[in-house]
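Workshop exercise sheet. Pairs work together: one partner reads the sequence aloud, the other fills in the structure field after running the prediction. Swap roles for the next sheet.
Pair: D.N. / O.F.
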Amino acid sequence: MHPKDYITIVPMGADEGAYTDYIRVKEDSEGQLQAPAETGFYEVRYVLDEGDRTLASAEIEITEPEVTVSAPETATTGATFPVSWTGNVHPKDYITIVPMGADEGAYTDYIRVGEDSEGQLQAPAETGLYEVRYVLDEGDRTLASAEIEITEPEVTVSAPETATTGATFPVSWTGNVHPKDYITIVPMGTDEGAYTDYIRVGEDSEGQLQAPADTGLYEVRYVLDKGDRTLASAEIEITEPEVEVSAPDSAATGSTFQVSWTGTIHSRDFVTIVPLGADGDEIGNHDRVGDSSETELRAPSEPGLYEVRYVLDEGRKPLASAEIEITEPEVTVSAPDSVTTGSTFPVSWTGTIHSRDFITIVPLGADGDEIGNHDRIGDSSETELRAPSEPGLYEVRYVLDEGRKPLASAEIEITEPEVTISAPDSATTGSTFPVSWTGTIHSRDFVTIVPLGSDDDEIGNHDRVGGSSETELRAPSEPGLYEVRYVLDEGRKTLASTEIEITEAGIELSGPDKVRAGSEIGISWSGTPPHRRDFITIVPMGAAEGEIGNHDRVGSNSETDLEAPEQTGLYEVRYVLDEGRRTLARHNVEIVDETAALDRGGSLEVPETAAAGETIEISWSVDTESGDQRIALAQADQADFTWIEVQSASEGPPLSFTLPEDAGQYEFRLLDIPGRKVLSRSIIDVQ
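Structure field:
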C-alpha cells in the first residue's frame, strides 16, 4: 500500500471517491475519524490514493448523542450568565445564545465546550425570548437547547444640572450590568453609539467626566458595551466659564514676561502668546495652567501686536485673551578690532534679554541662523570666545535664543599668528626627543609628529602645549622622514612645522643558545635603548609580531633574566619597542628538557641516577683549557658559581664525588672560573 492512501467515513453506498472526514494511513495502523452530524448507516473505507479506489470497508451506525444544556430562566441585557451542559461530543462543539427559533448555524456570543461542563455567556443588548444551544461543530447542528428570557436591567445615572466647558464633573450610577459598559457625555438627542469623553463602569458606581468645549444641552449616558445601547441618561447643561487673563502692555522680543489668570477650568488648559487675530487653534510659546494662577511666557523674536490667550485643553478653545505689544530691544555688543586665529578674546554686551541668548562669531555677512563658536550669556555681560582657525573678516553677534535672531554685531578681523617650532634633526625609533616652540596661541593647541607631507588633520604622538614652550614627544616605531607640527586646536590647522628623520635604533641581544625548560635565561643587550618602557620577551620561533610571552621592561638596565617556557622547542628572545610593539633585535634559543645536559665549550659524563651517599666518578672534556677550570656539585636551582662541593679539573679526569644523603635533583657543572662561564651542565637524580 502507499502512505498517501486514506481512511474516510461516507454514507452507506456512496459513490467511489466520495469522502468526508479522513486521515492518511502513512506508516500507521490506527487513527481517529470524526462522525458526521447526521444519524444513519455509514461505512468506513480504506481508499487507494491512486485512483480513489476502495480496497476495504466497515459498516458503522451513527446515532444521536445524549446532550443537555441548562441556563437560568432570565438574564438582563448585556449581563453575563452561567450555562452548563452534559454529554460533550467534541471539544470544538460550542454553546451560544440566539433569538428563539433562529436558523441552524446562527450564533452570537459563544464558548467552546472543550473538556468543560460549564461556562459564561453574555446576554444580547435587546430584550426578548432567546435560547441557549449546544451546537455540534461538525455541521453546526443543534443537539440541545434551553429557553431564556432577556429582560431590561434597572440602571440609573446621575450628573449635576450644569458644568462649565472643559471642566471635570462627577457622575454616579446604579445597576452595573457589565464591567465594560461605559458612561459618556454627548449632545442632547445624539444617535445611539455616539460618545465623547467616557469612563468604563468596572466595579465602580461613580467617576469623573470632562465637559465638552462647546456650551449647550447634553446628556450623560450609561451605555451597554454589548450593542452600544443606552440604558439610562441624565440631562446636563454645559455653560461658558468666567475666565480672565492678564499680561503686560509690552515686552521685548525674546524676553520672558509675567502672565496671570482667574477662573481655571482644567489643569491641562494652557496660556499661549500668538499674533493678534490668529486662528483659534494656533499655539505659540505656551505653558499649562496646572494648579497655578500665574506663569512666565517667552516673547516671540519678531516685534508686533500679539495676544496672550487662556485656551481650553478640551477642544483647544480660547476662553480669554489680553493684547500685548512685542518691541525691538536695545542691545549692543563689543569685541576687539582683531585677534589671531585660534586665540580666545573678550566680548562684552549691554541690554541682555534672556539668559539663554548667546554670543557667537561667524564670517562677516553670514546668514542670520549661522552659529560658530559661541557662549550663552547667562547672568553676565562679558565672556570669551575662541577665534576661528581661518584668517579673514568676521562679526561677533548677540543672538536671541528665541528664533535665533541676531540683535547686535561687532566686526572683527582674524589674523594669522607667528609661530615657530624646533626639534632635533633626527631621533631613533621609539625614543623621546625634545620639542620647543614660540608664539603659543591657546593652551589646548598641540605639537605632534606625523609622516612628512601628511594631511593637515592627521595626528600622531602628541602633547598639548598648555602653558609651556617645550615638551617631549615619542618617535614613531618606523624609520623615515617625519615632521613635527604646531597644530591649532581650533580647526586642527598646522601653524608651523620642522622636519625630523627617525632612524633605526642599533640594538643587539646576547644570551645562551640552549636552556632548560623553566630555568632562568640571562639576556643582555648593547646599543642605546630607545625607551625605558621597551621590553625583552621570549616567544615561540616565528610568532606573530606583537605577541608577548614572559617579559621584562628594559628600564635603565642592559641585562635581565627571563623564565624559560615549560614547553620545549625553538624560541626567540626579542627586544620589542614599546612604541608600536615592533621588534628591534632577536636572539634564537632552544628550550630543552629540564634535565637535559647543556654544553657550551665542554661536556660532562655523569650518570642519570645514583643512590644517596654513593660515591661516583665524573669525566669530562673541554674545547679550550684555561688556568682554573673546576667540576662543581650543586643543587639544581643553586646559583651558577656556588656549590656543595668543588674540585679542580687539573686533577683528572676522572674525579670522585660522594653524593648528598638527601634525595633530589642535583647538577654537576664544568666551570671556567677566569671566563666566568659554565661550559657544561648535567643533572643527576639522587634517590
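Discussion prompt: The mean pLDDT is 92. What would you look at next?
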